[in-house]
């Protein structure tokens, strides 16, 4: 927290922190994986650059450059001694004064790690949420900010209450955007398609990883607008994200898509697993080793 290692139970913020009241914070979810060379963080610099970009978008001054954040991340992972873990970066407006303007509120930066399995199990039962994805003309959807995540929380609660595993959100125009914490791909006739950023979807780093792996596997992939009916007519649907990994969708709004992953999803999932665990030397540049 703010440059110092702090015991878990002492990692606290003031009850009048601006971010707690107004959602003025940006975050990143990153993972360290166990490899033959020891723990390594996957695409760490890409995550940190996106954190900095998100902060600029919402006007949050960052007190540390990427180089210091990288060092602090590796230091925190090493101090906790886990061979693999989830990493949460958070930069938020702290306590200084109350009120929306918050001119006197300093930026506080924290990095936490913990053991966290895959966010979703295999065979996700997906539903279309009645909530619409945040409109980017009202909320900057390009920023991974905490305030807009209320949109995801409401959709996730709705899905769980209805007996599903996850929700997909449509944007105001009725096009597919993304799920509550993951990007979405459909596969039809061997071609992968995923919604563009303009649909309100976050530009996901796992989404980008999937597209690059697909290209190396000779699988065509495009970003285009998707209708709800495209999900129903797909040969395969899968979700991807740092917390979720790559997981296949078994049904959408009770339209069955198959209990097991389809051939394209399976190939990409295997390739992704090899990359993050350092078994594919072509992608070693995506792994930042954690010092002992």
Explain what this protein looks like in three dimensions:
Acts on leucine, isoleucine and valine. Its EC number is 2.6.1.42. It comes from [Actinomadura] parvosata subsp. kistnae. Strands 5, 6, 7, 8, 9, 10, 11, 12 and 13 form a nine-stranded mixed beta sheet that branches. The chain has a five-stranded antiparallel beta sheet with strand order 4-3-1-2-14. The chain contains seven helices and 14 strands. The protein has 292 residues and is of the alpha+beta class. The chain is globular, with a radius of gyration of 19 Å. It has two domains: 8-114, D-amino Acid Aminotransferase, Chain A, domain 1; 124-276, D-amino Acid Aminotransferase, subunit A, domain 2 (D-amino Acid Aminotransferase, Chain A, domain 2, Alpha-Beta Barrel), CATH 3.20.10.
Describe the structure concisely for a colleague.
This protein is of the alpha+beta class. The protein has helices at residues 18-22, 44-58, 66-80, 149-161, 205-216, 228-232, 263-276, and strands spanning 25-33, 40-42, 85-93, 107-114, 124-132, 166-170, 176-179, 183-188, 191-194, 221-223, 236-241, 245-252, 255-256, 287-289. It is built from seven helices and 14 strands.
Question: Tell me, what is the CATH class of the largest domain?
Answer: Alpha Beta
Number of helices: 7
So what's the overall shape?
A: globular
Stated plainly, the CATH topology of the largest domain is called D-amino Acid Aminotransferase, Chain A, domain 2
| CATH architecture call of the largest domain | Alpha-Beta Barrel
Organism: [Actinomadura] parvosata subsp. kistnae
Catalytic activity: L-isoleucine + 2-oxoglutarate = (S)-3-methyl-2-oxopentanoate + L-glutamate; L-leucine + 2-oxoglutarate = 4-methyl-2-oxopentanoate + L-glutamate; L-valine + 2-oxoglutarate = 3-methyl-2-oxobutanoate + L-glutamate
Family: Belongs to the class-IV pyridoxal-phosphate-dependent aminotransferase family.
Pfam family, one: Aminotran_4
